[in-house]
Structure formats: structure tokens, C-alpha cells
Amino acid sequence: MALCQLLPGPASSELGIAIGMTRAGLLGGVLAWAGFTLPSAVAMVAFAYASTRLGTADLRWLRGLQIVAVAVVAQAVWTMAHTLTPDRRRLGIAFASAIVALLLPGTPGQVAVIVGGGLAGTLLSRDVVEPDVRPAAVPVGRRTAAAALAALGLLLLLLPLARRAVATPALDAFDAFFRSGALVFGGGHVVLPLLRAAVVAPGWVSEPRFLTGYGAAQAVPGPLFTFAAYLGAVEHGPPGGVGGAALALVAIFLPAFLLVIGALPFWRMLHAAPPLRAALRGVNAAVVGLLLAALYDPVFTGAIHSPADLGLALVALGLLTIVRMPPWAVVAITAAGGAGLVALGR
Questions:
Q1: How far is 55 from 187, CA to CA, in rounded Å?
Q2: For the whole model, what pTM was predicted?
Q3: Between 327 and 157, residue with greater pLDDT
Q4: How far apart are CA 102 and CA 309, in angstroms?
Q5: Rounded to whole angstroms, how far apart are CA atoms 292 and 96?
């Protein structure tokens, strides 16, 4: 778990891949990922087809799905802050990271935040005492690990060049989703700004449809990165549909596979180094800041347009945090509330 928090990509999925690899090698990692991911991905593709076929004008509850995202991300910020920023130093790193992320949106800001968080953690969190956990053995050799890391680096370097040489929508989409999966730290909700920049900015997916799919993702069990399957299915132009969903899903999770394969065999050697563990604490605090920035933009700014919207978001947040209602039930209630607001013209 500590390793997966340190790596870019979806931490929960990487943890599943790592567990599968320790039990059954590379095939075990693939099967663990499939069991953890495909149910959610299939549900998101089904929702994409339903929302496209019916049309957003006929689905009044889509407004509620956009609003519930505010409550879900706010709860995630609070939960992660409670766990990852337990002292003033790390809380300060989180707030500073949020400011930097808002001033420098997109990938450059995220990279700067993560690097800065690691450096700050090395300087400020060296005296924190944590339990020592020895990494599990994994049946993957270091040559395989080195090949996986080399493949990741080559893809990051060559895909943009290939896009310039061969202008095809499929290659453009693969590069956009691959880069989103490779450069986000903390996974989950933190990927939101990168995906938005990847698909909304070039006009592949509209802002309302993006936020609607993100709201629907809250009601679906499984990793939030399967939101990419929805985006691949609804994007304008080819590939789209099931083909687009499959391409987006493979592209966004491929960096996680390569990173886990590349890192696990070396983790025993690196994990005991005190500077690395201190840097990890700083990175985790920086991830809280990234999520806080994403809560404001695009989640809050894209979904809250009136006092009624804010009131419904606060109700959803109360149901999640005080009543402790399961997320799928809160999504259903907020969707109904959003439909009611549309009907009342509020």
C-alpha cells in the first residue's frame, strides 16, 4: 500500500495488481485487475449508452449527478486529510499544494506539487515514527521490472511524437488517457483535472456530459478510473462506443501495470530508506492539496450555479458524513433532488 501511494496512477487498482502479482505472477496481476475493474467499467459504458440514447434534455436527474460529485469529493478531501495530514507540517504542505495547483492547472502544476511535496516531506517529516512493514516477495525478476519501466518511459516520450506524425483520433485518445494515468498522483478524484483537460478542452466531451458521468461514477462500485470507459464511449467522433471505452480503459490503466511491475522487485531495497519514507509522507500530503484544488475547480465551479444547487450539495454531504448513508443511495437521492429542482425551475 505504501508503494502504491508513492507511484503515480490509481492506487487502489495498483494495490490489487500488486496482490495478484505476489500470488500468481504477471498473470495474477492481470486477472486481479480484471476482477476489480471490469464490473465498474461495464456499468459505466451501459450508463454512457443510456444517457446518449435518451439525451441529456430528457434526463432531469443528470443535474443531481453533477451536484452529488461536490459532496463526494468534499468527503474524500476530509477523509484523506484526516489520514494523511495529521500534523501542522503536513497540513501546511497540503494547503500550499492546493494553492500551487490552482495557480498552475494541468500536468505541470501536478508534477510541481508532487515534487515539492516530496522535498517538503524530506525536510519536515523526517522525525515521524511509523510502524515498519516488510514488503512481500514477488515472483518477478529485475530484468522484467527494468523492461517495464523502460517501456513506460518510451511510451511517454514516443506517443506525442507519433501523434504529430500520424494524426488519427484513436492515437490521440490513447495518448491522452495514457498520459492521464501516468502523471496523476493519488488516483481517484485527483485524476479529474487531467481527464478534463484531456477530453473537455479539445472538445471531445462536453463539460455537462463530463460532470454527469463523474456523478454516475460515484454510484458504481470499483475504481474511479473506470470513468475513462464512460468518456471513451461518449466522446465525439471515432472511435467512441465500446471500442472507444476499451481503448480508454486500457490506456489509462496501462501505466499502472508497468509501474507496479517495474517497482515491486526493487521495493524491498528502497522502502527502508528513511528519506524515501519521509518524502512519501510529503507526497501524500500534497495529494490532499491536489484533491482540494480539484474540489473547487472543476467540481464546484462546474456543478454549483445557484443557492438551490449549493443546498442540495450540502444535503448530500450531510447524508454521506453524518447519516453515513452508502454513496449509491446518496447518488439516487441527489439525482431525484436535481430532477425536482429542474421541474421547479430553480
A1: 30
A2: 0.73
A3: 157
A4: 23
A5: 11
